[in-house]
Amino acid sequence: MSEGYLTLLDWRRRVADMYSGVRAKLPTDAPAAHALWRSTRDELFRAHPQSPLLESDRSTFRGLPYYDYDPRFAKRGRVRPLPEERYDVGTSTGGVIPFVRFGVVELDVGSLEIFWLDAYSGGVFLPFRDATAGKTTYGGGRYLLDTAKSADLGAIGDELVLDFNFAYHPSCRYDPKWVCPLAPLGNRVQVAIEAGERM
Description:
Elements: H1 2-25, H2 30-47, H3 55-58, E1 74-78, E2 80-90, E3 96-107, E4 110-117, E5 124-128, E6 142-146, E7 155-156, E8 159-163
Antiparallel strand pairs: 1-8, 2-3, 3-4, 4-5, 5-6, 7-8
């Protein structure tokens, strides 16, 4: 049993290292940062014991599908504070996970609320669902930031780096055993964000 905890520790360490490498390349060489992100994720999904893929899918895995890098979807946003409000965000298994909404970013693709995970180890969380959901991306939405899991693109001054080319599916997209918070109603935008991970 302790082996599972140690492999999870290793997974999180590798993900943290990956995002550190990505931040070192952003924003000056975003395509190289994106290539690093993709290749590292593919290797983790293919070979790591904590891969979200079903065991039966790993032997035939050839890499995750992505949209080509598109600089139009590389955004930055200043967080406008909102009155803190506690939310129970619905999950892929029908349960809820407690979050605190503390701000919003206004982008040309729409407004997205920013949450703090009010359990676990805490962290900033930014899920979203766009017009590609259920068509070319997971129907429950994708994640842009999840700092509890080290998914953090950093900041430039007082603006968060919100590059949708790094948007990714939650683990429950691959295996229903994973419990994933889904994009709440306030984070559903009407435009198609054809960037990041796809189906």
